[in-house]
Design a protein that fits this description.
A hairpin with a 6-residue loop joins strand 3 (134-137) and strand 4. This protein has helices at 2-5, 7-22, 33-87, 95-118, 154-157, 170-216, 220-256; strands at residues 120-121, 124-125, 134-137, 144-147. A two-stranded antiparallel ribbon has the order 1-2. A two-stranded antiparallel ribbon has the order 3-4. 21% of the residues are buried. The chain contains seven helices and four strands, in the order H-H-H-H-E-E-E-E-H-H-H. It starts with a helix and ends with a helix. It is mostly helical.
Length: 257
């Protein structure tokens, strides 16, 4: 009966108790070296996918900031066009009227330039042309994609010198509006792409985590049954050891009496 109450059996009891307490069947390599290696590899993949999702989410946030700011630029340009149309009606508009229109246009142009200069994400300017493509690592394998730094400055839009008090062309404003629309379309397409990547990462992380759980999670009901069995064996072992000691003590007493 020595094998029942031996050290190995006691350490096995402690190991089983630890598994029940943690709910994990894989705690050390001794519990299954191959399974543990696979589980750790899965865990690395999940960590990479989750970090990739965070990176992608940051990219989506940056694009949303870009788009919102370009929406403001569009509003400024629409108002400039409205004023330019009014100024082009030379039949009723005087030079002093044009000067008033231009004063508001200059304020609107300052607004456009201001938006281009202050729109940023994590200290990266997004609309002044100073930032090139921003790299986004999307998963644990180092896969990456890029979002573009855009340029909505007055010079880039071609309206830096737009002035209704002199010769001007309404097409300049139309071209500026077209450029902004093109930038917003580009940003929107990239946002859709990033959201697709984000969803793929989330699904991958979920499924990999589920597979990892199936590999390493403990069958608690079965483990508790084994634990109860182990406790019973320990109790029997103690009782038998005590009985053996009593028998040896009785035998010794008979020899000396």
């Amino acid at each position: 009966m020595g094998s029942i109450g031996g050290v190995g059996q006691g350490s096995g009891y402690q190991s089983l108790y630890g598994k029940v307490a943690s709910g994990k069947s894989l705690q050390t390599a001794a519990d299954g070296a191959a399974e543990l290696a696979i589980s750790e590899k899965m865990n690395t993949q999940v960590i990479g996918l989750e970090q990739g999702s965070k990176n992608v989410a940051s990219g989506i946030d940056a694009i949303k900031i870009q788009d919102s700011a370009l929406g403001d630029v569009t509003d400024y340009l629409q108002r400039i066009k409205e004023l330019a149309l009014a100024a082009s009606n030379t039949f009723t508009v005087t030079d002093s009227d044009k000067a008033i229109y231009q004063k508001e246009i200059d304020q609107l142009k300052e607004g456009i330039e201001g938006v281009a200069n202050v729109t940023s994400y994590n200290e990266k300017n997004l609309l002044d042309g100073s930032t090139g493509d921003l790299n986004i690592t999307t998963d644990a394998n180092g896969t990456s994609t890029e979002i573009s730094g855009l340029n909505s400055t007055l010079e880039a839009l071609g309206i830096k010198d737009f002035d209704v008090t002199g010769d001007f062309d309404l097409k300049d404003i139309d071209n500026a509006l077209e450029k902004v629309s093109s930038m917003r379309a580009e940003a929107g397409a990239k946002q859709n792409s990033l959201e697709h990547i984000y969803n793929i990462n989330q699904t991958g992380a979920y499924n990999t985590t589920a597979s990892q759980s199936r590999l390493e999670d403990l069958d608690v009901e079965k483990a508790v049954g084994n634990l109860d069995k182990q406790r019973l064996l320990n109790t029997i072992s103690v009782m038998m050891q005590k009985k053996r000691e009593e028998e040896e003590e009785d035998k010794a007493n008979r020899l000396f009496n």
